[in-house]
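We include the entry.

. . .
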Amino acid sequence: MDAVRVALLREVLAGTEWLGATRRFAGALRGSVMSHGGGLLLVGTPEYEPWHLAAHLVDEAAWSGMPELAPTLVRHDARPSDPAHLAVGLGRLEAARRGETLLVVAPGAPCAPLLERVSDARRAGATVLALGPGRGELPAMAHEALAVPDGSELDLDTVQHLVSAAAGENALPTPPRGRRRFRDRLSRLTEHLTAPPPTRW
């Protein structure tokens, strides 16, 4: 990551609107998975799979003591020969039911087949959250959406890091031993963002 992005992250930590927006969105995500208990499904588009967000949510689930945050990554090109955690295909969206949470990450307008499956999941009772474009069908059908439009001061990857860190935030004033405060996690986020991207997990 270049110095410009690190500087932008510092602005976020200082309390720009992005910090509040990502915390509100992450709170909706956390509240949905904690209150409904049906599991978290995470899906991107055929061109963009949210590997980083999936991996960081798994980490936050462990660090925060909230296993409900660990997502099932739903993939467009999943194959039976893939490792189990990478072999979940779009058919899983068709099986989504009440109590489950579906988080859709899209850098642009999703394709019609994906929108159709998301709409079906919502009709079946799943809670839909959207991270990506601020306009179009996806944010309109979502129960909660965080817009990252083209030209934003933060890009979609950086916002995903902020959302995952905020999702594991502990609401207690004094975190139990082993849990890290939100500020601590965001401080470490700078290190993650400046490191080389991880391999597929």
Summary: The domain at 3-78+88-194 is CATH 3.40.50.10490 (Rossmann fold). The CA atoms of residues 32 and 186 lie 22 Å apart.
